[in-house]
Design goal:
The complex is a heterodimer.
Chain A lengths: L9 H17 L4 E13 L10 E11 L5 E9 H20 L1
Antiparallel strand pairs in A: 1-2, 2-3
Chain B lengths: L8 H15 L8 H8 L5 H20 L4 H13 L6 H26 L3 E17 L2 E15 L6 E8 H23 L3
Helix pairs in contact in B: 1-3, 1-5, 4-5
The chains are: A alpha+beta, B alpha+beta.
């Protein structure tokens, strides 16, 4: 009677796991940006706060997924959040230029 | 012993903290009975209830008007002078509380009034794609950006976007236009 097959050694098992991770990564849902619209708003008052008085940046993104289907995503940023967002894009631009 | 006579700032400060957690920061489970038993155990419930309502009302008025310190002093002084108002010791506790918690309460109020998703986080990396055919090598760097978005009180949603260098620069140009608008808005008199 044949001896049962031994478990593959740890290094091999980890390679198999990495392969699955890679396959998942390749099919990761990544979208491309089709359009970027923005507006600068000022929240003045609300039912919970009569004196809001804060400016905000509202963004509407149109993004296309790998199949070409376009969907809309909206979000808002306070001014400090926008400034951080802008700073990060400048960093990305600086890095991408050097790659 | 009446709630109004119970001085020593600790119970009132604790009460204001709990009221802020309940009213502004959305902390669940803060009941009238819990507050009374923890902070004012010697005050009967029928007396605690109007006291709690009065303090909640004062805190909401101050937050709603986003009072600066002059407005706050005037408001609290008026409260000490009216029938069934507050004592000057209580006014001092409320004033100190607002000064140290104003920013955080205001931030919560802003979050509550935002009904779109907010930007909770942004992470990115740049990949250098390299294609090799025979001996030619083409490098097309790609920026991968993950935006974490979420509505108030809801789970985050993650959006992963890919940009080439051209797209990154296009976005940068748009963002500089936004910044210009912000500068124009800020420089305008009220």
């Amino acid at each position: 009677m044949k001896a049962p097959l031994p478990h593959p050694p740890l290094a091999q098992r980890m390679q198999i796991r990495d392969c699955w991770a890679l396959i998942r990564h390749l099919f990761e849902a990544r979208n491309t940006l089709v359009d970027f619209q923005w507006k600068l708003g000022m929240a003045v008052s609300s039912d919970t706060c009569r004196s809001l008085k804060y400016p905000y940046v509202a963004v509407m993104l149109k993004v296309a997924d790998h199949s070409g289907q376009v969907k809309t995503k909206c979000f808002e940023m306070t001014i400090p959040q926008f400034q951080n967002f802008y700073r990060q894009f400048k960093e990305i631009a600086a890095v991408i230029e050097t790659v | 012993m009446a709630a109004g006579e119970l001085e020593g700032s600790k119970p009132l400060n604790g009460l204001l903290n709990a009221l802020a957690q309940d009213t502004f920061h959305g902390h669940p489970g803060i009941t009238e009975e819990l507050l009374r038993s923890q902070l004012y155990p010697e005050v009967p419930p029928e007396e605690f209830r109007p006291f709690l309502a009065k303090m909640r009302g004062i805190l909401k008025s101050i937050a709603s008007a986003d009072m600066d310190f002059n407005q706050l002093e005037a408001f609290l002084t008026a409260q000490t002078k009216k029938q069934g108002g507050i004592t000057s010791d209580q006014a001092a506790v409320i004033s100190k509380f607002w000064k140290s918690h104003k920013t955080k309460i205001r931030e919560s109020l802003m979050n509550q009034s935002r009904w779109n998703s907010g930007l909770r986080g942004l992470s990115w990396r740049v990949d250098g794609k390299s294609q090799s055919r025979h001996s030619a090598q083409i490098h097309t760097p790609v920026a991968i950006i993950e935006l974490e978005l979420g509505k108030y009180g809801q789970k985050s949603e993650f959006l992963c976007l890919e940009f080439d260098e051209v797209k990154v620069n296009q976005i940068l140009k748009t963002l500089s236009e936004v910044e210009e608008s912000i500068s124009t808005l800020i420089s305008q008199p009220n």
